[in-house]
């Protein structure tokens, strides 16, 4: 990996405006190290919950905590796949996905938190290996995903920022409501 290419935060021209809410959350000059450190932080948070707490929803129409972790895993897989294809020079436009359909059809509620956390770690380690293997040119390659141009570098920051976004939602909305429900 060439750290120079990976340590430069993506410019707003490298991703669709929607993803700025994720990329702006990453405050690092080493995105790969950030992705690695998030493993421990995420495992620590989710690992501190009981199985029954992981089923909590702060409102009836919201995902459970377990479903949110499953969503983070699915989304990382999809965005890493996009990064793989684009980094290898694949110019084929990559389709989008409907997150609510994925969560609805995933059966995360039937799985234990320990199982989901093991999957999260495995997916994240695969993501880290992918990004570590890239040369400078790969980080800057552009492709089309969800009908928008994106760089590989931006995808790395989106993955990290997406997780940070959901961790913030958990802290702001789920944890206070969970404490109040006891």
Model description:
The model has no long low-confidence stretch (mean pLDDT 95). α4 packs parallel to α6 and α4 packs antiparallel against α8. This protein has a two-stranded antiparallel sheet. Helices cover 60% and strands 4% of the residues. The protein is globular and about 50 Å long. It is mainly alpha-helical and 182 residues long.
Low-confidence stretches: none
Shape: globular
The largest β sheet comes out as: 2 strands, antiparallel
In percent, how much strand structure appears in the residues? under 5%
Distance between the termini: 48 Å
Taking all Cα atoms into account, the compactness measure Rg is 16 Å
The number of strands is: 2
**Residue share in helix:** 55-70%
Q: Helical stretch count?
A: 8
Order of adjacent strands in the largest pleated sheet:
1-2
Mean pLDDT: 95
Output the helix-strand order.
HHHHHHHEEH
Helix and strand composition category: mainly alpha
């Amino acid at each position: 990996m060439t750290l120079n290419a990976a340590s430069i935060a993506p410019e707003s021209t490298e991703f669709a405006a929607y993803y700025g809410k994720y990329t702006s959350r990453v405050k690092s000059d080493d995105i790969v190290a950030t992705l690695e450190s998030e493993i421990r932080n995420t495992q620590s948070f989710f690992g501190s919950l009981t199985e029954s707490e992981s089923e909590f929803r702060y409102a009836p129409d919201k995902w459970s905590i377990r479903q949110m972790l499953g969503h983070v895993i699915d989304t990382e897989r999809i965005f890493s796949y996009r990064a793989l294809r684009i980094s290898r020079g694949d110019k084929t436009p990559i389709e989008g996905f409907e997150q609510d359909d994925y969560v609805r059809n995933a059966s995360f509620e039937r799985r234990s938190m320990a199982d989901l956390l093991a999957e999260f770690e495995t997916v994240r380690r695969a993501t880290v290996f992918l990004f570590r293997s890239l040369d400078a040119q790969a980080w800057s390659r552009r492709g089309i995903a969800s009908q928008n141009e994106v760089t590989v570098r931006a995808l790395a920051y989106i993955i990290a920022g997406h997780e940070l976004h959901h961790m913030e939602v958990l802290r702001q909305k789920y944890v206070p409501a969970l404490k109040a429900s006891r």
